[in-house]
Amino acid sequence: MSVEIERKFLIRLPDLERIAALPGCRVRRIVQTYLQALPGKNVQRRVRLIRENGRETYVFTQKEDLSGISRIENERVLSKEEYDAYRKEAFSRLEKTRYAFPWEDHVMEIDVYPYEIGGDGLVGRAILEIELGDEDEAFRIPDFIEVERELTGTKEFTNTGMAKRL
Predict the structure, then answer these.
(1) Could you give the number of structural domains in the chain?
(2) 117 in helix, strand or coil?
(3) Could you give the CA distance from residue 52 to residue 75 in angstroms, rounded to a whole number?
(4) CATH number at residue 100
(5) Closest CA to 141 of 97, 110, 108, 112
């Protein structure tokens, strides 16, 4: 169990070739499948299929909100059989390509979606996420990333919310 502290931004779609060429950049294709809620529990559950460099990894994640910026997160790697079993509890899914690269003391994660979500909200745009050590930690977004607005704490562009709109 860990606490995830994350800031999230709506950005203009950057030059993805430039991003992929940055030292240490990882490009992963991700399918997130959201699972039915457990009775009496206020948690989000999902399973992920992650494709990177010809390999597939399966991950179960459960999150519980602490504040608009912090959540308790439990995550574990699954077998293909466990992943397939969890998918029977699905209510929605979302696909994206994640570009993750080190920047100063942080890792920048840019999520690019292969379709429109909720009208044209993501046409020509992507989502930038930055994980922090504490809620007040300072960070700097690279100057080659154009931020339109901060999304931290809003429901409009959460992955769960976008998956429900698909």
Answers:
(1) 1
(2) coil
(3) 18
(4) 2.40.320.10
(5) 108
Provide the residue range defining the domain that includes 138. Answer: 2-165
Apex CA 115: angle with CA 114 and CA 119, to 5°?
Answer: 150
Q: Is the pLDDT of residue 34 over 90?
A: yes
pLDDT of 26 over the 90 cut: yes
pTM: 0.89
Sign of the torsion angle spanned by Cα atoms 144, 149, 154, 155: negative
Handedness of CA 9, 166, 163, 19 (dihedral sign): negative
Least confident of 32-41, 82-91, 115-124: 115-124
34, 160 in Cβ contact below 8 A? Answer: yes
Q: Rounded mean pLDDT of 84-111?
A: 95
